[in-house]
Amino acid sequence: MRRRVGRHAQVVAVTGVFDRLHIPSLGGATAWLSSEPLDSADLRGRVVLVNFWTLTCINWLRQEPYVRAWSQAYRDDGLVVIGIHTPEFSFEHELDLVRQATTERGIDYPIAQDNDYAVWGAFDNHYWPALYFVDRDGAIRDTHFGEGRYEQSERVIQQLLGIEREPVSVVGEGVEAEADWDELRTRETYLGHGRGGRFASPGAAAYDEQRAYELPERLRLNSWALAGTWTVGPESVTAGQAGATIAYRFHARDAHLVLAPGEPEAVPFRVLLDGEAPGASHGVDIDGHGNGVLREGRMYQLVRQHDGVRERTVQIRFLEPGAEAYSFTFG
Tens digits of per-residue pLDDT, 141-170? Predict the structure, then answer.
């Protein structure tokens, strides 16, 4: 679960009951997908599930198959799901990227693009993902922030609809697969100096200026480093040369990296796992030789271990300059 403020929040269940608060206006949305603009008055008489998300959030990606399944299972019973896409990183303001994300995830419910954080502010929301459960009178009856609590959330939907049935069966696949929580010992790490930490290249990072870095002789667990020419900006690090490399020492089944291409528009890269091609441990966005191509801003899955989870070092070498790296996430 990501929090808007400058610190990481753990993935925990947070719920509340809003007996007197009603769904606020959605009028601050900057665009809509799969729907004409909707507002709270248009939704009276319907049970509504509002889902705040941002397209690079691994917690949202793992939650989304449930929200998608609920939308499909209960729409004929009167449920309306509305996704509010409030961008975290600057490139997530691009509507075409949001449209591509909804297509790739098979999302057919209405999406409001919230580039100005107007809807986010109206709800006084602080997290991605966030669920708000709204009854037919427009009252917010329950909330949940982060992953998990899926059966209870579905029961809330059923109670608001006045129905009772077995919960839908959901199995996330690819990047949507549930994390291996027992083996997840590395947390999300931001790379820009605005929220970054755990940087391990020798010497301090130079903010907002290009300089050369080296990898340390040994990376400690849950630390990262740069090699080659990079610029450390407020929200990302930008490769200044072909061959620029990022390395991270982690303990998790999956390793992901949020990337955007900058210039040029397509940047080939190669991933090594403990200094070798990942083979069967490659993620969905690279092949067994470690080859991948950065084409658009999103989260890229680099590693998925199948032969037991252990401490590993992943290295990403960009074959052209211009790649922007924002954060590592794990599962």
Answer: 999 999 999 999 999 999 999 999 999 999
Q: Which regions of the chain does DSSP assign to beta strands (E)?
A: 2-3, 15-16, 31-33, 47-53, 79-85, 111-113, 127-128, 130-134, 140-145, 189-190, 210-213, 224-232, 237-239, 245-251, 254-260, 267-273, 291-294, 298-304, 311-318, 324-330
CATH code of the region 2-176: 3.40.30.10
Q: d(Cα 243, Cα 77) in Å, to the nearest integer? A: 55
Q: Which CATH superfamily is domain 189-330 in?
A: Galactose-binding domain-like (2.60.120.260)
Buried b / exposed e across 292-310, counting CB within 10 Å, b at 16+?
bebeebbbbbbbbbeeebe
Omega before residue 129 within 30° of 0, cis: yes
pTM (whole model) above 0.70: yes
**What are the tens digits of pLDDT across the range 202-215?**
998 999 999 999 99
Quick one: CA torsion of 325, 326, 330, 331, rounded to 10 degrees? -100
Q: Taking the CB of residue 45, how many other CB atoms lie within 10 A of it?
A: 9
Question: What is the CB neighbour count within 10 angstroms for residue 170?
Answer: 16
- Residue spans per domain, the chain: 2-176, 189-330
| Fold: same for 2-176 and 189-330 | no
**Alpha-carbon dihedral sign for residues 135, 140, 141, 145:** positive
